[in-house]
């Protein structure tokens, strides 16, 4: 089976619907005793420290002094601190440590991949091993399993171990989060794909698609199984069965974009009726209203068949999904105005032409200002200029006004039309001149430039030059046609100005350039003869090709009308209109016919079925969603689970997305709702972390779709991502932050992003990390001749306090004395922490090493060595991830010689990464020859 667009969690997150069925991230495991004690808030005041500043005081006093100094060095002085944690036995202390280690390993893994602009293969390998360690530390950690699934999914094609972990992740998440319909579907797909033959997979899919099983699966999941079954039947050469199952997929879930796209490829095209094609295109646009190309195709189809009401509505959406800079915008604007004229709304068509012209000319002016070294006066002059419409819009405007306006209005519109040609020709000349100058400068300068780069630039310039030449020839041809149609001739030049080219000259150069063929040249000559009232000459030119050219046939009908042969003229106009109801010449003929008969002309025969197909398939809610996409499609809410988070505990935010539109929106890559959201920290007040501004990308895909007016809430544990470094620093010194969340986003840089179509951006309220108190670790005065000791941590709060005491000590440099504490006093604290660390359970030692700040190796090596001596794989992995700085570092040596496959892989990956980094640093330091 090929695929599913179901990309799974990019980071730890849990979905609310099943919160009652599972343990929250950070909760005590169910098997733990319910006897939990929460210590009260402790307040450190200047008075507490005042009696301890005598250098002759005991060890307790010296510890208090050092704590005060460490806290003061970070600008926090005597702030409020909390003693958190559960009073538990030693075994439960180890259980808490393993739970938090799962988040630590996930955050290490995330940091290696998500907080960097580029990563190496060894880093990817190590990130995978760390993710595996996370789920092994706590097999019930949903955040760790979600990160494991995301990472293993992206690596499963390249690493066998990743494929195995992907399967294990799916099974674990189905167990832990049974309401997640995406992982349930992934589990079913895995079971199907494990079958060895195509026929066995087909049989499995057919069983799942029995009516009673569809009810259990749910229609969206069943639709995806049906699509896979369709593909399997295609592989087996049974195309009728493939078509049937594809239709079943669409029936089960009409909002499934991938199935609709497959149907367009299989069923759409010239062999279908216009109504059938319209129905398919309307279904595709409904499934994903962001697809401007689909809207363009649907609107153009409706226009070509004369279904003007549907065409104008859909083309308006296509315009809104486009941009004036895009090449297709001008054609879209012309077709939209044609459709409005076809509806009988000539005034609305003219207003639309003016509106689209303003959009186009505004962008043109902005680009000129950016591309030219204008003075402020020149810029203001340009922005104040009133520019004519582009020639296609100017031509349509002139035709509509000529048919419905006064003679004076017609003359004004025709003059504007030829001003449009003048401006377009002048712009073409300017661009060709600039390109020529650029090419000459390229040849004259840049002698030392890379020759291949220069050659590539020459080829690009040559291609641009060809494009400008083709545009120029097309403008000549269009102007020739416009002159013949309106019988327009340029006035005599004034003040020695260069005379404008005659119609004959335009025809000559257009024929030479190939923008007109000989038949088109005859048509223009025939229409010119009509404008000159040389009707016999015009008939001789147009009659021979009237059966193959609607423009010649329209000319013959006009000759008949002007000659009084009303019946023949009406028949000619009718035939041209019904043959080309979506083109300018067709609608012009309809206008002439309506005046002859003094009645409204019925729509072409195909218009009704196409209109009905679109009306039945395309809800008005789609157009409303596109027209009000900035405000009315998605609502986004971001709430921290708490406003004050305990230190070293999960920091969870809830992200709620609500579908405000009137249609169901699929959640899948490339669909109307992206399964990814971006999270960025801002307003960080944690000391040392104010500059943290990278983006975190996580998955929200717990469901396959979001029905109208429904919401999806995902909970993200930020402490199981690369943002853990911010949160751990907050536990040391306190402080707060807020996060900005964006869905359907487009990244502009590592820091900046822009919400894309149907995208929203929302900020959370500020939340705070409570500073951990370290007073619990204040020891007693030693007896005469004995060494100072810290209490052995017996509770989670003790462990947190020990890590905090040591972390703050490392941040102030142990070997530097100051006026309030000597190096000896700090050294005693250091030795006390080391002695207490030795007596911790292995898992607690490992957690301690995972959260303390990085510092000089001589400070940390004794702690790392103790952890390594335990032989615990988790301890070795933490040491590898945080404290291996050379290819021969002890963590690498122990890991690669351990005999444990995972440790060997991780140790090799770290060593390869360090070697590659050293080689790159040496290369960067090399001086060029000479």
Task: Kindly describe this structure.
This protein is of the alpha+beta class. It is 59% helix and 7% strand. The strands form 5 sheets. Strands 5, 8, 9, 12, 15 and 16 form a 6-stranded mixed β-sheet that branches. A 4-stranded antiparallel β-sheet has the order 1-11-6-4, with no helix packed on it. Strands 2-3 form a two-stranded antiparallel sheet. The radius of gyration is 37 Å and the shape is elongated. The N terminus is likely disordered.
Condensed summary:
The chain has 930 residues and is of the alpha+beta class.
Write the layout of secondary structure elements.
Layout: E1 14-15, E2 41-43, H1 46-50, H2 59-73, E3 80-82, H3 90-114, H4 121-137, H5 142-155, H6 160-176, H7 181-193, H8 198-208, H9 211-217, H10 219-235, H11 239-252, H12 257-267, H13 274-287, H14 292-304, H15 308-320, H16 328-342, H17 346-371, H18 376-384, H19 391-404, H20 407-444, H21 451-486, H22 503-513, H23 518-531, H24 535-542, H25 550-562, H26 566-579, H27 584-597, H28 607-617, H29 620-627, E4 634-640, E5 644-645, E6 652-659, E7 665-666, E8 676-682, E9 696-699, E10 705-706, E11 711-717, H30 724-733, E12 735-743, E13 745-747, E14 753-755, E15 761-763, E16 767-769, H31 796-811, H32 823-838, H33 842-851, H34 857-869, H35 873-883, H36 890-896, H37 901-925
Parallel strand pairs: 5-16
Antiparallel strand pairs: 1-11, 2-3, 4-6, 6-11, 7-10, 8-9, 8-12, 12-15, 12-16, 13-14
Helix pairs in contact: 2-31, 3-4, 3-5, 3-33, 4-5, 4-35, 4-37, 5-6, 6-7, 8-10, 10-11, 11-12, 12-13, 13-14, 13-28, 14-15, 14-16, 15-16, 16-17, 16-19, 17-19, 19-20, 19-27, 20-21, 21-22, 21-23, 23-24, 23-25, 24-25, 25-26, 26-27, 31-32, 33-35, 34-35, 35-36, 35-37, 36-37
């Amino acid at each position: 089976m090929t695929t599913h667009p179901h990309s799974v969690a990019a980071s730890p997150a849990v979905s609310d619907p099943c919160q009652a069925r599972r343990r929250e991230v950070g909760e005590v495991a169910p098997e733990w005793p319910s006897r939990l004690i929460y210590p009260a808030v402790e307040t450190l005041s200047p008075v507490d420290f005042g009696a301890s500043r005598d250098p002759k005081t005991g060890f307790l006093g010296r510890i208090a002094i050092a704590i005060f100094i460490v806290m003061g060095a970070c600008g926090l002085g005597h702030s409020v601190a909390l003693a958190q944690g559960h009073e538990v036995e030693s075994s439960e202390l180890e259980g808490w440590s393993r739970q938090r280690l799962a988040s630590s390993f996930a955050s290490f893994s995330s940091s290696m991949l998500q907080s960097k602009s580029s990563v190496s293969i060894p880093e990817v390998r190590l990130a995978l091993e760390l993710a595996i360690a996370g789920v092994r530390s706590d097999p019930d950690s949903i955040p760790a399993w979600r990160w494991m699934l995301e990472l293993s999914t992206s690596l499963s094609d390249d690493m066998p171990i990743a494929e195995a972990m992907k399967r294990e992740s799916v099974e674990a998440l189905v167990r832990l989060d049974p309401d997640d319909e995406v992982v349930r579907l992934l589990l079913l797909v895995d079971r199907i794909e494990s079958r060895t033959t195509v026929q066995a997979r087909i049989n499995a899919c057919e069983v799942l698609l029995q009516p009673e099983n569809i009810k259990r699966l749910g229609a969206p999941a069943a639709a995806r199984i049906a699509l896979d079954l369709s593909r399997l039947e295609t592989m087996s050469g049974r195309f009728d069965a493939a078509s049937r199952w594809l239709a079943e997929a669409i029936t089960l879930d009409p909002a499934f974009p991938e199935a609709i796209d497959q149907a367009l490829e299989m069923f759409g095209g010239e062999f279908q009726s216009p109504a059938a094609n319209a129905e398919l295109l309307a279904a595709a646009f409904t499934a994903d209203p962001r697809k401007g190309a689909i809207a363009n195709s649907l609107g153009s189809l409706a226009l070509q068949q004369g279904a003007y009401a549907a065409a104008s509505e859909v083309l308006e959406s296509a315009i809104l999904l486009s941009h004036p800079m895009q090449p297709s915008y001008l054609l879209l604007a012309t077709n939209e105005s044609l459709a409005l004229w076809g509806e009988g709304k000539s005034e609305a068509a003219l207003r639309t032409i003016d509106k689209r012209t303003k959009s186009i000319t505004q962008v043109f002016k902005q680009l000129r200002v950016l591309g030219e070294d204008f003075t402020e006066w020149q810029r203001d002059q340009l922005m104040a200029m009133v520019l004519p419409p582009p020639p296609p819009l100017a031509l349509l405007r002139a035709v509509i006004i000529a048919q419905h306006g006064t003679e004076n209005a017609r003359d004004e519109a025709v003059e504007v039309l030829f001003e449009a040609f003048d401006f377009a020709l002048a712009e073409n000349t300017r661009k060709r001149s600039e390109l020529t100058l650029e090419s000459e400068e390229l040849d004259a300068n840049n002698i030392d430039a890379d020759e291949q780069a220069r050659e590539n630039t020459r080829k690009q310039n040559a291609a641009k030059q060809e494009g400008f030449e083709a545009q120029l020839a097309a403008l000549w041809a269009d102007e020739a046609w416009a002159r013949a149609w309106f019988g327009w001739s340029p006035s005599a030049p004034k003040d020695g100005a260069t005379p404008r080219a005659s119609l004959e000259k335009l025809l000559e150069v257009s024929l030479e350039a190939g923008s007109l063929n000989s038949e088109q040249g005859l048509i223009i000559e025939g229409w010119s003869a009509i404008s000159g009232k040389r009707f016999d000459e015009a008939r001789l030119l147009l009659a021979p090709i009237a059966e193959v050219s609607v423009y010649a046939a329209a000319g013959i009908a006009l000759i008949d009308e002007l000659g009084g042969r009303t019946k023949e003229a009406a028949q000619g106009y009718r035939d041209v209109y019904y043959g080309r109801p979506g083109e300018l010449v067709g609608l012009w003929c309809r206008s002439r016919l309506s005046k002859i008969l003094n009645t409204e002309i019925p729509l072409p025969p195909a218009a009704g079925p196409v209109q009905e197909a679109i009306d039945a398939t395309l809800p008005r809610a789609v157009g409303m969603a596109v027209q009000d996409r900035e405000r009315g499609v998605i609502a986004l809410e971001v709430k921290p689970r708490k406003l004050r988070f305990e230190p070293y505990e999960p920091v969870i935010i809830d992200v709620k997305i609500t579908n405000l539109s009137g249609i169901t929106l699929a959640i899948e890559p490339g669909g109307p709702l992206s399964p990814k959201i971006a999270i960025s920290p801002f307003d960080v007040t944690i000391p040392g972390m104010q500059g943290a501004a990278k983006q975190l990308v996580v998955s929200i895909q717990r469901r396959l779709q979001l029905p109208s007016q429904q919401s999806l809430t995902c909970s993200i544990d930020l402490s199981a991502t690369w943002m853990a470094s911010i949160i751990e620093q907050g536990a040391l010194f306190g402080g707060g932050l807020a996060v900005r969340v964006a869905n359907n986003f487009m990244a502009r840089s590592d820091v900046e992003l822009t919400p894309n179509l149907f995208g929203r951006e929302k900020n959370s309220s500020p939340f705070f990390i409570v500073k951990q108190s370290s007073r619990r670790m204040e020891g007693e005065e030693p007896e005469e001749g004995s060494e100072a000791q810290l209490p052995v941590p017996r509770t989670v709060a003790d462990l947190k306090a020990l890590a905090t005491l040591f972390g703050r000590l490392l941040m102030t440099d142990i070997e530097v004395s100051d006026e309030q504490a000597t190096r000896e006093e700090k050294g005693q604290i250091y030795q006390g922490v080391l002695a207490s660390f030795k007596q911790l359970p292995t898992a607690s030692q490992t957690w301690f090493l995972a959260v303390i700040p990085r510092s000089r190796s001589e400070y940390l090596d004794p702690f790392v060595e103790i952890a390594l001596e335990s032989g615990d794989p988790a301890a070795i992995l933490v040491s590898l991830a945080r404290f291996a700085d050379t290819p021969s570092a002890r963590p690498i040596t122990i890991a690669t010689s351990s005999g444990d496959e995972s440790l060997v892989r991780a140790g090799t990956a770290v060593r390869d990464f360090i070697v590659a980094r050293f080689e790159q640093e040496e290369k960067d330091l090399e001086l060029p020859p000479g």
